[in-house]
What we know:
By secondary structure, this protein is of the alpha/beta class.
Amino acid sequence: MMRLAGLNIVESIDSLRTIPDGKVLINTVNAHSFNIAQKDELFAEALMKGDYLIPDGASIVKACRWLKAKSQPKERIAGWDLFTFEMQRLDGRGKTDDVRYKVMFVGSSESVLKKIKKKAALNYTHLDIITLSPPFRREFSDEDISEIIKAINAANPDLLWIGMTAPKQEKLIYQHWPELDIHCHVGTIGAVFDFYAGTVKRAPKSWQDHSSEWLYRFLTNPRRMWRRYLLGNPLFLWNIFKEKFLG
């Protein structure tokens, strides 16, 4: 069972600047993924043993304070924050070095990836975008995984984004981390692919600032999100209560 109080969590957006260059795995944790990790041992291991873990939820920040956890994040760092930070940093490096760096997006549909590629060409003029849409299956076959790994290694990107939703994306990369012959930061960012492509609208900033992005996602897509939030939020509170008082 994963315990929040024992996790090493990045404490601020500014702290992202201290992540060294090279092959680095960056995952996110929020109330939903924390709940899943209580029952999925491989997922919990992937989160705990990745190189960096960012608090993608105000609930994680507040729970760390209440638990007097080892890590005390000062703010929520959404997957979107990680995405924009890394993209801007690499694009800025390209401008300074007069080099075109490669960013690879693995996940989602071909239509979403096309939108990402088109938008990134305008937003990040020193980055070349490479995309891969894996088969839409509940579980990948060994052949699927082999093809994904081969494609990533062949591309040899300078930044790699994985967007397949949790826990699928985290477990895939964690299990096959040694097979990835790459030199870059790798971020598992799920819904950010849709946010950036514009196929799913992100909550207005006022909702984000008041820790209500989850409510916006629920209200705009209740059929898909009701279980995650109406059942998941109370479950998260129960899991944190158990950690605090029941050990």
